[in-house]
Amino acid sequence: xxxxxxxxxxxxxxxxxxxxxxxxxxxxxxxxxxxxxxxxxxxxxxxxxxxxxxxxxxxxxxxxxxxxxxxxxxxxxxxxxxxxxxxxxxxxxxxxxxxxxxxxxxxxxxxxxxxxxxxxxxxxxxxxxxxxxxxxxxxxxxxxxxxxxxxxxxxxxxxxxxxxxxxxxxxxxxxxxxxxxxxxxxxxxxxxxxxxxxxxxxxxxxxxxxxxxxxxxxxxxxxxxxxxxxxxxxxxxxxxxxxxxxxxxxxxxxxxxxxxxxxxxxxxxxxxxxxxxxxxxxxxxxxxxxxxxxxxxxxxxxxxxxxxxxxxxxxxxxxxxxxxxxxxxxxxxxxxxxxxxxxxxxxxxxxxxxxxxxxxxxxxxxxxxxxxxxxxxxxxxxxxxxxxx
Length: 389
Description:
Elements: E1 5-14, H1 20-25, H2 28-41, E2 45-50, E3 53-54, E4 69-70, H3 75-81, E5 85-87, H4 97-111, E6 114-116, E7 118-119, E8 131-136, E9 139-147, E10 160-161, H5 166-179, E11 182-188, H6 199-210, E12 215-219, E13 224-230, E14 233-239, E15 241-244, H7 251-254, E16 256-265, E17 268-279, E18 282-285, H8 292-298, H9 304-328, H10 332-340, H11 354-365, H12 367-387
Helix pairs in contact: 2-3, 9-11, 9-12, 11-12
C-alpha cells in the first residue's frame, strides 16, 4: 500500500523591514521556529502565497494602496524553509511593475522554487502560468492559482496576475480535472479582515467545486475564516497570514493564520489545520491549537442575514472614509466655478487629486470594492427608507 501524500498550503508570506536580516541570513529556525520547519520538512509538497515582489527596484506602480516588496537577497530564508513553490496571483506582484515581476521570477528560478499565477502581458504569445502539475506516488496533482482583479491586470507593457474570469476558469478547471487525480485551487480574494465569505466568494467557490476542484482556499483576507464541505470538496474561506508581519491593523486577526495540510490517501483525503502566530516579526507554532472559534464560525455559513450584517458593519466606515470622500474631489471652489462657468474647467485632474483618481478607479475596476460598495449603499438606502429624514 502506498504512503499517504502530504501537501502543505500556507497563507501570505513576505519579508518585512524588521526581519529582512533573518531572511537574508537564511535563518529559517529563527524566522519560523523548529516545529514549523519540521512540518515543512515532513511534507511531500508545500506552497505559500508570496505577497509582493522580490526586487531591488525603487520604481513603484501608481495604485491605490501600499506597494510591497523585499530585497532579492531575502530569498535565502524562503528557500531554507523548504518551500516547493509560491503562488503569485495576488494584488501585490505588480507593485514594482515589470522589473519587479522579472526580478521575482528570476530569483525563484535561481534557487529552484516553483511559481504559479502569472499571466503574460497583452499581445504576448506565451501561455499563462495558471497551474502546476506534479506527480507524487503515481498521483497527478494540479495546483491552480487565480486572483480577483485588484490593480494587477496584465497590460501591453507588463505581465500581471492570472485573474478570475468565470467562463475561462470554470472551463479550465473541468479540463484540468480530467487530466489530474486531485485539483487544488488557491484563490486570492475575499473581503480583507472579514472571517466569512462574501456572497460573491461563496458562489464562486461552489461553482469551481461543481466543475471538479477538490480543495479550494481563499487567501488575501489576512484573517482566519471558516470551512465548508460541499459535495465532497473542501472549501476554506480564509487562511489568514503566514509570515506577513507588516500589518498593524486588526492585530487580533492578522497575527494568526492556518497552515493547512492535505493528506491524500487512496481515493479520499483529509484536511488538517495547524495554527501559527506572528510574534515580534517572526512566526511560531501555536501550542494551544484551539480551532473552536473556527468551527463555530463555520456553523454560521448559511446565515446569510447575519453575514451580510457583519460585512456591512465592517465596510461602511471604510467606504465612507475612503471612497465617498475621494468622489467629492478636493477643490470645492473649482467645482463651484465649473457649475457657474461650465467651460472654465475642462480637465478632471483640475478637480481630483491623483490619489483620488486612483481610488475612484479602484472602485470601478476592482471586484472587491465593487461588492463592498453594493452592500454599503444598500445598507444606507435601507436605513434611509426605514428612518427617513
